[in-house]
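Ops channel
N.P.: pipeline sanity check, posting one input/output pair.
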């Protein structure tokens, strides 16, 4: 039997700001929300149509992440075109959260940029990787 990756859970400082970021920049939808026993809300976010495949869980009370520029840990989202990556990068720059300007890397990395979410996590938006929209296959 093989395991299936179903979710990623992050403790965050400001859950409302993180919800807004992932809705605005990644287009995720709020699919579940509840209060946990410790008194904070727990939310599940997912891509439309993929609610039963993979979710991002946000939990309250995180310490925040002061991720070093040399730490390339990140969440990755595929976009349907290079132009879509450019749009995200421009919005991120305008909002003061652009971490990695757009760049092209050899296969399988492709064209991408990176933003910092409100908790300090790097979030990559890419085109041309062998996964998701724009996959080179």
């Amino acid at each position: 039997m093989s395991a299936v990756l179903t979710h990623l859970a992050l403790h965050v400082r400001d859950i409302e700001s993180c919800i807004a970021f992932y809705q605005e920049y990644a287009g995720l939808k709020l699919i579940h929300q509840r209060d946990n026993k410790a008194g904070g809300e727990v939310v599940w976010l997912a891509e439309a149509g993929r609610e039963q495949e993979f979710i991002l869980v946000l939990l309250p009370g995180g310490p925040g992440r002061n991720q070093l520029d040399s730490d390339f840990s990140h969440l990755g989202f595929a976009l349907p075109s290079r132009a879509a990556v450019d749009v995200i990068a421009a919005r991120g720059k305008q909002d003061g959260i652009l971490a990695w300007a757009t760049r092209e890397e050899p296969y399988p990395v492709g064209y991408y940029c990176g933003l910092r979410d409100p908790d300090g996590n790097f979030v990559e938006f890419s085109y041309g990787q062998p996964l998701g929209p724009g996959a080179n296959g």
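N.P.: looks fine end to end. DSSP finds two helices and eight strands in the chain.
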